[in-house]
Every structure is written in C-alpha cells, then in structure tokens.
Design brief:
0% strand; mainly alpha; 114 residues; 5 helices
Length: 114
C-alpha cells in the first residue's frame, strides 16, 4: 500500500497542471518587493517571459488533448479539449506579452535616462 501511495504521489507531482498550480500559488502568495537595481528588474521580466512560455507549452502538450486525439475520441470531445488547451496557450502568451512589454518599456526608460 505504501508503494502505491508513493507512486501516485510521484505521478501527481510530475503532472504539468500540478506544477502550474504550484507556480500560480507561489506568485499569489509572494509579497511584492520594490526592486531598484536594474539587473533585478530585467531578470524579473525575463523569468516572467519564461514562465509564460512554460504555461503555453503546458497547453500545447496537454495530456488530455493528446490522449483524446490518439485514442480516437469523438470529434466533440477533441474540440472541447482543444478549446481548453487553447485557453491555456492564450493565458501563457498573455503572460509572455505582458512581461515582454514591461521589459521593453523598462529598457526604453533606462536608455532615456542615459
């Protein structure tokens, strides 16, 4: 019984949705810090871009979508999973875009100061 519970725990921890949920909880619980050093701000935006990229990849490689496609599920079920995956991809791209725009304006402001 103990081995079965360990196996289930490792499968759940490897699930991309579990990782996405943990990331969202850590972002929500993190206290906002004022960053004054420019390298920290650039790193903050770059890590946000990477997070958005990873969220979009979770949507693209959604196991529910690919299982439905490969197992020959009905057309309606595949469309439902494709819409779900599309929403996750759009969310990831929105995070990428938000951080990219923030990085662009931050760098533009730094150049204007010089």
């Amino acid at each position: 019984m103990r081995n079965l519970s360990r196996f289930i725990k490792t499968v759940v921890q490897a699930c991309p949705y579990t990782l996405l949920g943990k990331k969202c909880v850590s972002v929500v619980n993190r206290k906002s810090k004022v960053r004054t050093h420019s390298n920290n701000k650039v790193q903050f935006f770059k890590s946000g871009i990477k997070t958005g990229r990873n969220i979009a990849l979770v949507g693209i490689f959604c196991p529910f979508l690919w299982f439905a496609i490969l197992s020959g599920a009905s057309k309606d079920f595949i469309i439902l999973n494709a819409m779900h995956s599309g929403i996750i991809v759009c969310l990831g791209l929105a995070v990428v875009g938000f951080n990219y725009v923030g990085l662009y304006f931050f760098r533009k402001r730094i150049i204007e100061k010089c």
